[in-house]
């Protein structure tokens, strides 16, 4: 028995499942097998219990149970019929004697019992079964969260690693750029920044002709083409019929 499995984990009404298959598939298969159970008096309800509307199969002499629990009913063809669904027991409440008796008479088994995976042992490690529900996307997200936390710590203590180095270079560039902008010092990577801060209008003027061409150039070209169309028929009218006035 592996030492990592506690003896307390094997105490009580437990069992062991040995498998060479996929652990997630085995866990899902185990969860399918459940047995319905009646509501016993004093049991804490694990879920909400709702009595559905419809025919109960009980004769009118059984209406006292419904009256005690304030369940609206009517007699239809000598059978008690529930008019509307009623939430009989709320999750976390204890089952009373009246509720238990009514559910037993209606043959309603609101609760279910089955095997529950408590722990998973794999390759020398014991872990919670919730780990089996993790998808690749969940693992990737947790990995990036871990990298982000490690990077934040390394940046705080100025310790360079593969995760922190790109941020350190970026921050260093920003600091040097701030010094260059505030002084007369110059280096090639700061050329455009200093040029823009010195004369922002230069960049606006560079975009001006393009905007003008986009807005005013198109109407001008259209007007020129229209004028050309008007002049063209007058020049070619003598040749359209294949002869001149002197023929």
TrEMBL record:
<protein>
    <recommendedName>
        <fullName>Large ribosomal subunit protein uL10-like insertion domain-containing protein</fullName>
    </recommendedName>
</protein>
<dbReference type="InterPro" id="IPR043141">
    <property type="entry name" value="Ribosomal_uL10-like_sf"/>
</dbReference>
<dbReference type="InterPro" id="IPR040637">
    <property type="entry name" value="Ribosomal_uL10-like_insert"/>
</dbReference>
<feature type="compositionally biased region" description="Basic and acidic residues">
    <location>
        <begin position="224"/>
        <end position="235"/>
    </location>
</feature>
<feature type="domain" description="Large ribosomal subunit protein uL10-like insertion">
    <location>
        <begin position="39"/>
        <end position="108"/>
    </location>
</feature>
<dbReference type="Pfam" id="PF00428">
    <property type="entry name" value="Ribosomal_60s"/>
</dbReference>
<feature type="region of interest" description="Disordered">
    <location>
        <begin position="221"/>
        <end position="247"/>
    </location>
</feature>
<dbReference type="GO" id="GO:0022625">
    <property type="term" value="C:cytosolic large ribosomal subunit"/>
</dbReference>
<dbReference type="GO" id="GO:0070180">
    <property type="term" value="F:large ribosomal subunit rRNA binding"/>
</dbReference>
<dbReference type="GO" id="GO:0000027">
    <property type="term" value="P:ribosomal large subunit assembly"/>
</dbReference>
<comment type="function">
    <text>Ribosomal protein P0 is the functional equivalent of E.coli protein L10.</text>
</comment>
<keyword id="KW-0687">Ribonucleoprotein</keyword>
<dbReference type="GO" id="GO:0003735">
    <property type="term" value="F:structural constituent of ribosome"/>
</dbReference>
<dbReference type="GO" id="GO:0002181">
    <property type="term" value="P:cytoplasmic translation"/>
</dbReference>
<comment type="subunit">
    <text>P0 forms a pentameric complex by interaction with dimers of P1 and P2.</text>
</comment>
<dbReference type="InterPro" id="IPR043164">
    <property type="entry name" value="Ribosomal_uL10-like_insert_sf"/>
</dbReference>
<comment type="similarity">
    <text>Belongs to the universal ribosomal protein uL10 family.</text>
</comment>
<keyword id="KW-0689">Ribosomal protein</keyword>
<dbReference type="InterPro" id="IPR050323">
    <property type="entry name" value="Ribosomal_protein_uL10"/>
</dbReference>
<dbReference type="Pfam" id="PF17777">
    <property type="entry name" value="RL10P_insert"/>
</dbReference>
């Amino acid at each position: 028995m592996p030492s990592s499995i506690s003896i307390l984990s094997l105490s009580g009404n437990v069992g062991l499942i040995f498998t060479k298959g996929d652990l997630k598939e085995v866990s899902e298969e185990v969860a399918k097998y459940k047995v319905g159970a009646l509501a016993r008096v004093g049991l804490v309800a694990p879920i909400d219990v709702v009595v559905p509307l419809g025919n109960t199969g009980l004769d009118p002499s059984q209406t006292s149970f419904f009256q005690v629990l304030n369940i609206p009913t009517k007699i239809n063809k000598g059978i008690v019929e529930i008019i509307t669904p009623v939430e009989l027991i709320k999750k976390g409440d204890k089952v009373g004697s009246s509720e238990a008796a009514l559910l037993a008479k209606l043959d309603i088994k609101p609760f279910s019992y089955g095997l529950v995976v408590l722990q998973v042992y794999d390759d020398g490690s014991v872990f919670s079964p919730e780990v089996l529900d993790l998808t690749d996307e969940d693992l990737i997200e947790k990995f990036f969260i871990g990298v982000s936390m490690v990077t934040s710590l390394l940046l705080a203590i100025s310790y360079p690693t593969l995760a922190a180095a790109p941020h350190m270079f970026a921050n260093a560039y920003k600091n040097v750029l701030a010094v260059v902008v505030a002084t007369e010092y110059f280096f090639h990577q700061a050329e455009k920044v200093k040029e823009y801060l010195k004369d922002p209008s230069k960049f606006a003027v560079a975009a001006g002709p393009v905007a003008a061409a986009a807005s005013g150039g198109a109407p001008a070209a259209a007007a020129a083409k229209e004028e050309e169309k008007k002049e063209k028929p007058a020049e070619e009218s003598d040749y359209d019929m294949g002869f001149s006035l002197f023929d």
